[in-house]
Amino acid sequence: MTDPLTAALSGAEARAEERVTALLRGCAPLGVAFSGGVDSSVLLALALRALGRDKVVAVLGVSPSLASDERAGAHRVAAHLGARLVEVETAEGELPAYRANGPDRCFHCKNELFTRISESVAAAHGLAAVAYGENADDVLRPDRPGSRAATLHAVLRPLADAGIDKAQVRRIARALALPCADKPAAPCLASRIPHFEEVTPAKLAQVEQAEHALRALGFGDGRVRHHGEVARVELPVEDLARAAGPLREPLLAAVRGAGFRMVALDLAGIQSGAFTLPLVEVRPGETPRAEVRAAQAPSAQAAGAEARAAEVPSVQAARTNVPTTEAPRAGEVTTRD
């Protein structure tokens, strides 16, 4: 069995590790915001290799938006690495701006997580710094506002700063024999609820139950989008025939069992950023700057988006790691995660 803390990396992956190690120099003890996904798992592994097991703590945020399967998976990965893992309960569901579910929802969620880490975990474990698993591809996406919360809390992003993209993250994960090396992306459950429709524990529980049922039927990747009484099921294109054929009846029964009255199979397959990307626009020459198309939402909802946008600092500050109180223009949400 490969020991992920002693396995040798070679070529480009070895050079990438050297860059991460240099970035983490002087950052011990380090807290790693950890989900069990491949990005945060690779960051945790590289941090353990650079600093040692006694100088790194994995921190898992727990709330109704985290599926129980994901929580258990995170514990398995941490145990595989021999890493200390602490859980911190987050209360983003109590925040009106989070429940309102604008395109900046992830900002409020990450801000809550990093606030809880700062207020409890950092002192308890004497942390000198906190890092999270943003990679170089994430930097280029216009639909990831959680990154800006990281900036406000001075959270490090070693993978992105080392130029490590998603493909290289997976190559490193495979070289270190991490159990999550080929794990599909698993955004939080709230991402299944259309923007401007309230995020509630009941909806999150419905989505979790339905997606657990998909996995039980043998679908390794999938999303259940919550459209009120309708569940829109997204699966890899290669799984659509199986879902509409021999597994149609059990899939229908399983998703209905989660409380949905109707079940639709999306022929487009899995769509990352399905709800957020239609609401943002990247302007030529700007990387990335985005605005909410408020005209697509009812006027009251658009006004709410404007108010929430004023709470989010400018993208230039996010790129320079200098917090600012400058607010975006009305109707605009700049995003980077």
TrEMBL record:
InterPro entries: Asn_synthase, LarE, Ni-pincer_cofactor_biosynth, Rossmann-like_a/b/a_fold. Residues 295-314 have a biased composition (Low complexity). Residues 19-98 form the Asparagine synthetase domain. One of its GO terms (biological process) is asparagine biosynthetic process. Residues 295-337 are annotated as: Disordered. One of its GO terms (molecular function) is asparagine synthase (glutamine-hydrolyzing) activity. This is Asparagine synthetase domain-containing protein. It comes from Streptacidiphilus jiangxiensis.
